[in-house]
């Protein structure tokens, strides 16, 4: 196990109807003037935004709004949000939505007190020194941004999607009401589950030895998803399964299951170029890329793939560890398919002829390789895109 | 899953040699004048206390000291510590030790700004409104107090051992250096492992339905201990196994694996009277009481015991769920024995004729039953003591 520091001061407020307490929590966490960031139609239609507006009015907290955040959130709205905050003396950013909304809110929160371009934080040009506090009302279990210190933004100037982050961006509170996720279309629910699984797997695949605690915790979250996800696919109103998935999503990305070990994250990087170029759902892109990545790197550490196959995918133990390891990847892929996820380039709307562009974008302004488990250069990444294209 | 709030703002600083950074962390968390609370001989002998003294001197932080904390920590030292803090304008309490030291430090931290008797917080007479910040350098993986909001103190006036707690008592930081635990006697190491397991099991046994996420997380921590504990019993200098156990201990009691579900805690309550009366190690007392409690309550929810037996104790699945459930308890008891733990009254130095006194003490100043999984009155608790006495 490696040395580490872990600090997760987010207050998780979990359960049915908890979003009605937003006024109390915003006040308790020092909000005076709030910017509410959100997506669009669904939160408006469901009445959630009006509920929040009413609660904040009741708490006498002046409210400014920035709607229209889309999946794979863009830099344009971040600049707009920073302007609104500066012009109106906003001192708290409230995200009402999923990962894209939360990431936009975080990028705004970090950008407001910074003199330069917020994009500096995404290309390693600057380290964040301060940020406005962020609060969250979550509407989809997926990105885990409500409990994480990171945010991913796509720069419209070139459509590069890059992660950024700082401990300062961990939300002060996150209200998690599983009921809010009951009306999601099945495809979005499945994309969310895939994203959560991917967050665990990016941590699971490590070369750090002797990490039994976090291995077991990773497996626990995966086993939970294997058990609970089919329930919500069958019955979207299964509150209890929604609740388990939602809490798993927050834990998966809070890093509690990833400390003390090198983490990989190359599948995420490789996927980001797909969703940046085709504007496909991040979870769907991961469903295509992760199995391809697994095929490519499996022989680097058959034992780890074997362990995952036995402990999570229920494979029988065997002396033929390679076959069991491969069977695990097969079962993982079949599980994604059972959720209705695409697992090939074609299903995603991606084109084999774009692979050189994808690789070019992936290594744009990037020095060195990506990933830790098996560091990948241009050639290796191209191979992984090609495996996905042939899947 | 029940509604819940989870807030764990402790900064965990994990790894070899991290205790040398104490000056930096104490300063960062606002310490100006520090009370260092510790046990005795071993921390002095190992040179740890001198290391801390030197680091705090280097950071120019005035230091006051309170040594002599013993297992099952007493109210007397708490009063003494409160006096030292008040007389010297101490604004930060640093615990260097294990659960007893940390709990003493926490009780002092809560008592200093309170006008009444700190014991009020342990008998439900008052709710804590403020507390001095607490920091920890951990020397044994066991109580998990470094990451929890509780503390257990024994009142010398009657030898009643009672838990107290407040969110305000969560340590601001906890330095976890597994190497510091390598010199512990095997018996203490084993008591620690038993205590950690008990913290997980108190959460595991619940009547709350649909708690797959936390069930799986509990099982993950138990599986880790089953894997790692024998390694340190064989080789006390196994740093990696020590590291996994230490981090498991902090997670087990931070409540991350216990949210959203009713928790039991009757075995802890029943044990507290043993360690209060005989001054035995808490972990050893738990090794005697927990299996007895399991025998007594097993038929209340055979399915839960069956699940534990299959998932953690490696029992084969079977239609005869009751036998498998019982086999699980048997394997748990055998595991405790393999660590060198006592599993009977006699081995602990407890006497059957004291059972009426134990029951009397357990229900002293207590109204109602104890526990949640199966609420227990005087008669039921007496039965559990008798099962332990006959084990």
Q: Would you give an account of this structure?
A:
Chain A has 391 residues and is α/β, with parallel strands linked by helices. Chain A has 15 helices and eight strands. In chain A, a hairpin with a 4-residue loop joins β6 and β7. The longest helix of chain A is centred in the middle third of the chain and has 23 residues. Chain A is globular, with a radius of gyration of 20 Å.
CATH class group of the largest domain in chain A: Mainly Alpha
Considering residues with a beta carbon less than 8 A from a beta carbon on another chain, report the largest interface and each chain's count: A-B, 41 and 41 residues
Strand order of the largest sheet of chain A: 1-8-5-4-2-3
| Main beta-sheet strand count, sense and barrel state of chain A | 6 strands, parallel
Question: Could you tell me the radius of gyration of chain A in angstroms?
Answer: 20 Å
- What is the CATH architecture annotation of the largest domain in chain A? Up-down Bundle
Give the proportion of residues in helices of chain A.
Answer: 40-55%
Question: Which quaternary structure do these chains form?
Answer: homodimer
> Which structural class do you get from the secondary structure elements of chain A?
alpha/beta
Following the backbone from N to C, one meets helices and strands of chain A in this order, namely EHEHHEHEHEEEEHHHHHHHHHH
Could you tell me the number of beta strands of chain A? 8
Name the CATH homologous superfamily of the largest domain in chain A. Answer: Dehydroquinate synthase-like - alpha domain
Give the N-terminus to C-terminus distance of chain A in angstroms.
Answer: 36 Å
Whole-number tally of structural domains of chain A: 2
Q: Which regions of chain A are unreliable across 5 or more consecutive residues at pLDDT < 50?
A: none
Q: What is the CATH topology of the largest domain in chain A?
A: Dehydroquinate synthase-like, alpha domain
| Spatial shape of chain A | globular
The averaged pLDDT of chain A comes out at 96
Number of helices of chain A: 15
Tell me the β content of chain A.
Answer: 5-15%
């Amino acid at each position: 196990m490696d040395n580490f520091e872990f600090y997760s001061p987010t207050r998780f407020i979990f359960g049915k109807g908890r979003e009605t307490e937003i006024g109390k929590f915003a006040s308790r966490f020092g909000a005076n003037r709030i910017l509410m960031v959100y997506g669009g139609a669904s939160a408006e239609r469901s009445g959630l935004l009006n509920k929040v507006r009413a609660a904040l009015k009741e708490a006498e907290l002046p409210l400014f709004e920035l709607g229209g955040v889309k999946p794979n959130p863009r830099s344009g709205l971040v600049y707009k949000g920073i302007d609104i905050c500066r012009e109106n003396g906003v001192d708290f950013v409230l995200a009402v939505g999923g990962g894209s909304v939360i990431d936009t809110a975080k990028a705004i929160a970090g950008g407001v007190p910074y003199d330069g371009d917020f994009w500096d934080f995404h290309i390693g040009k600057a380290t964040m020194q301060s940020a406005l506090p962020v609060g969250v009302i979550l509407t989809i279990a997926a990105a885990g941004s409500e409990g994480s210190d990171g945010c991913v933004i796509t720069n419209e100037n070139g459509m590069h999607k890059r992660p950024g982050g700082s401990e300062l961006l961990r939300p002060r509170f996150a209200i998690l009401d599983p009921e809010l996720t009951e009306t999601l279309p099945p495809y979005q629910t499945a994309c969310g589950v895939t994203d959560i699984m991917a967050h665990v797997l990016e941590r699971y695949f490590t070369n750090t030895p002797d990490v039994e605690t976090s291995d077991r915790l990773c497996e626990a979250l995966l086993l939970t998803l294997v058990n609970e996800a089919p329930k919500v696919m069958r019955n979207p109103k299964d509150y209890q399964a929604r609740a388990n998935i939602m809490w798993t999503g927050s834990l998966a990305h809070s890093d509690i299951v990833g400390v003390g070990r090198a983490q990989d994250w190359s599948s995420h990087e490789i996927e980001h170029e797909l969703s940046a170029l085709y504007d496909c759902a991040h979870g769907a892109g991961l469903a295509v890329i992760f199995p391809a990545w697994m095929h490519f790197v499996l022989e680097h550490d058959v034992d780890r793939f074997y362990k995952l196959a036995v402990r999570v995918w229920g494979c029988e133990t065997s002396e033929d560890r390679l076959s069991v390891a491969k069977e695990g990847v097969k079962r993982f892929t079949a599980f994604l398919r059972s959720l209705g996820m695409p697992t090939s380039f074609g299903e995603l709307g991606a084109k084999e002829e774009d692979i050189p562009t994808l690789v070019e974008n992936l290594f744009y302004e990037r020095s060195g390789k990506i990933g830790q488990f098996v560091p990948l250069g241009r050639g290796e990444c191209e191979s992984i895109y090609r495996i996905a294209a042939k899947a």
